[in-house]
Specification:
Layout (H helix, E strand, L loop, with lengths): L4 H23 L4 E7 L3 H17 L2 E7 L5 H12 L6 E4 L9 H7 L11 H9 L7 H13 L7 E5 L6 H10 L3 E5 L6 H6 L3 E4 L17 E4 L3 E3 L2 E3 L4 H4 L5 E2 L6 H25 L1
Parallel strand pairs: 1-2, 1-3, 4-5, 4-6, 6-7, 7-10
Antiparallel strand pairs: 8-9
The protein binds NADP nicotinamide-adenine-dinucleotide phosphate.
Length: 284
């Protein structure tokens, strides 16, 4: 079975549209998302354009603030502080990667945790790992929702996550632990990745190596989620060898059209959650 991320994302956006209509009738205002884009990185420009397009589609007030590559760090930090105190802004996202002279950690830590739609602020990271309410990074959240479409009860499933980044692997671990999975997190120093994958009921590949995961690495009937986006001479491919693995997996996400669209839909969902949290903070 091919897990159609485009379709799942479109369904999620329809639900979000309805939620925003309800919020508008309750608060007489809609959630606002501000994206800060620095420089001219082509993939970043495409991601931001798509985020803006879908935000507008669901009824979110979308704003993109663009800075040249050589913008001073202080200018960006001051803008974030200004957005933190602007009640019309529910969510703030600073598109990564940043130019080298700008400290990513400082940028992330300047964002008000309640407006942190990406879930990268240490307060949200800590809350997620403690099992408390938090903003959840959009890509792992999208993967999680896709897995739940196939398997409602993940109790005792063995999940193998390939990649330990703060963006993908680590938050994915927390989400699956909360679902009572037994989680193995692997990385570039893992001794026998094939053997680890062979034991998995669920594989999440977030590596950035084209077609690393082969058909004979996957147990029959496993769910395989491919986060990787790799540009090759034959076009965009994932971390999973789709042709081989789709013959053994119970369900698999394609690249493109799998996790990518869900990431953006989850960003919109997070913006709505941030809006609610902002409102409840203002009223308390
Ligand atoms: P990252 O920060 O570079 O992390 C990659 C991880 O993979 C690291 O933990 C690394 O191990 C591990 N790794 C590298 N080579 C390996 C190997 N041969 N065997 C096992 N593990 C290996 O990457 P990321 O930001 O998490 O992104 C991963 C991929 O997802 C990229 O292709 C990216 O473009 C894609 N992505 C997609 C979406 C989406 O919406 N679909 C969103 C974000 C990212 P070490 O820690 O030991 O170095």
């Amino acid at each position: 079975m091919i897990l159609d991320g485009k379709k799942a994302a479109a369904e999620l956006r329809e639900e979000l549209k309805k939620k925003i209509i309800e919020l508008k009738s309750t608060y007489n205002t809609v959630p606002g998302l501000t994206v800060i884009l620095i420089g001219e990185d082509p993939p970043s420009k495409i991601y931001v354009r798509n985020k803006e397009k879908f935000a507008i589609e669901v009824g979110i007030n979308s704003q993109v603030i663009k800075y040249p590559e050589d913008v001073k760090e202080e200018v960006v930090l001051n803008k974030i502080k200004e957005l933190n105190s602007d009640n019309k802004v529910s969510g703030i996202l600073v598109q990564l990667p940043l130019p080298k002279h700008i400290d990513k950690r400082k940028v992330i830590e300047t964002i008000d945790p309640v407006k942190d739609v990406d879930g990268f602020h240490p307060v949200n990271v800590g809350n997620l790992s403690s099992g408390y309410d938090s903003s959840i990074p959009c890509t792992p959240l999208g993967c999680y929702l896709l897995i739940k479409k196939i398997e409602k009860n993940l109790n005792g499933k063995h999940a193998v996550i390939i990649g330990r980044s703060n963006l993908n692997g680590k938050p994915m671990t927390q989400l699956l632990l909360k679902e009572n999975c037994t989680v193995t997190i692997t990385h570039s120093k893992t001794k026998d990745l094939k053997a680890e994958c062979n034991r998995a009921d669920i594989i999440i590949a977030a590596v950035g190596r084209p077609k690393l995961i082969k058909g004979d690495w996957v147990k029959k009937g496993a769910i395989v989620i491919d986060v990787g986006i790799n540009k090759t001479d034959s076009g965009l491919v994932g971390d999973v060898d789709f042709d081989e693995v789709s013959k053994v997996a119970k369900a698999i996400t394609p690249v493109p059209g799998g996790v990518g669209p869900m990431t953006i839909a989850c960003l919109l969902s997070n913006t709505i959650e941030c809006f609610r949290k902002n409102k409840s903070r203002l009223s308390s």
